[in-house]
Design goal:
Layout (H helix, E strand, L loop, with lengths): L1 H17 L4 E5 L1 H4 L8 E7 L5 H18 L3 E7 H6 L5 H9 L1 E2 L1
Helix pairs in contact: 1-3
């Protein structure tokens, strides 16, 4: 769907404007293709440094424009690449994203 492509393209663009070296991964129901009409967009943002609350808020604030434009919720998870690979590797969430995630 064109709207979905536009949303994903804008998400990636906005994230890369804040942190050009970030990785952006779509996961959850939209990545699996079994979303409902009210499903949110689950986005994992991996950055090359430890991301604190201020950086998370910067991403959320920027992506809020897309939420308003399309009337769809975007849920973000912001982690450092190192933290994601080390601390989260044993979690079911990590395994699900590894299997189902779509790199943008």
């Amino acid at each position: 769907m064109k709207t979905d492509t536009n949303i994903l393209s804008q998400i990636k663009q906005f994230v890369k404007e804040i942190e050009p070296q970030s990785e952006v991964i779509l996961y959850g129901s939209r990545a699996r293709g079994d979303e409902g009409k009210d499903s949110d967009w689950d986005i994992l943002i991996l950055v090359p440094y430890s991301a604190g609350l201020k950086k998370e808020q910067e991403f959320r604030y920027r992506l809020f424009d897309i939420e308003l434009q399309y009337g769809q919720a975007i849920s973000t998870l912001v982690k450092s690449k190192e933290e994601w690979e080390n601390r989260f590797k044993i979690t079911p969430l990590y395994q699900n994203i590894l299997q189902e995630g779509i790199s943008l």
